[in-house]
Each structure stands twice: as C-alpha cells, then as structure tokens.
Write a structure and sequence with these properties.
The protein has 205 residues and is an alpha+beta fold. It has one domain: Lipocalin. The protein is built from four helices and twelve strands. α3 packs antiparallel against α4. The longest helix is centred in the first third of the chain and has 17 residues. The chain is elongated.
Amino acid sequence: MSKAILILTGLIFMVVLFSCKDDSTADVVPQAIQNYQYNEGTTNLEWTAYKTSSKLPVKGGFNEISVIAESSNDPKEVIESLTFTINTASVETNNEDRNGKIAKHFFETINTPTIEGKFKSLENDNSATIEVTMNGIAFDVVGTYTLEGPDFSFESIVDVSSWNGVPGITALNEVCSDLHIEKDGTSLLWTEVKLSFNTKLKIVL
C-alpha cells in the first residue's frame, strides 16, 4: 500500500472518529451556586397565650428581635447557625395597656429583659430543637419545622414553668384578674404558650 493511501486512510479515520464524538456537553453552562442568607425583613415571631377556664387565646409578638446567622449554599445550615435576642420590653399585642402589663408584671418579675435563643438542630423527621434562655435558665424547646427552599417555619408548645416562670404568670394574672375570669368565678392565666416562627431566606447568586 502506497504512502499516500495510508495517509488518506488515516485522515478518513480521524474524520469518522471526531464526527462520532458525543458533543452533548458542549453547550452545557455551569449553573451558578445559590447562596442563602438571613433576611431580617421577612421574619415573624408570634406567641399565643391562654386565659380563662375555657382557654381563650391571646396573641402577640415582639417588635425588637436581633438575629445573627451565617450564610451558606445549604439553607438548612443557615437556620442551624441562627441565634437571636429579643427585647421583652418590645412585646406587642396591639393593646398598649396589655403590652405594659406583660412587660412589667411577667418579664420583670422573672428578671428577663431579653430572651436569648439559638437553633441547635433540624432533624430529617421535621423535628427541630431551639435552646431558649429566660430567667437565667437555658431550656431546649422541641417543635416541628418545614423548610422548602428559602421558606422556613417552626412551631412548638412550651410551658413557662420550664424557666421558673410561674411567679410571673401569677403576678400578671393578679393585675389582670378581672379580664381572666369566667362565669365559674375562676381567674386563670395558663402557663402553656404556643410559639410560631417563620422567615424567608435571601438567595444571592
């Protein structure tokens, strides 16, 4: 076989080889990695207390909540890094007189100018643990959560007696006795409180 034929054969082989090459990835553009950050403007903390024998709900929240969290490409890591400080004097129930009574007779009685908290874990079964400190006592609050992309929510039922808060409940019930009484003549403020926290993380590309 002549040298020219060998060269021509080689060229044909190379053309066939490269024409059969899989170029399906040629136009693939790497996706930008999403980075999640805490977004203060979307956070809402709500509590529900209960009064009277029939357990009438009283809802409220706080106007001053300071939050610190790390950023991450995993939203779960952002939530687990979250710590918060609540100014209890900023309690808000849409009733100025009631706000003042709760701040003075409950939180001042149990010596709690601020509530400190930090997320400890988010489990795969949708349970979450938050360490909450009041009255000098750190107590683990366990509840349920949902995390769908940047949207996070948490709910739990706590008992303020876990933080030796009964003296505060008693003091607040005494000053609000007429508002916590029913036909049975019993004035009652429950130690049980429902907590709800939700936030929407910021996505930065």
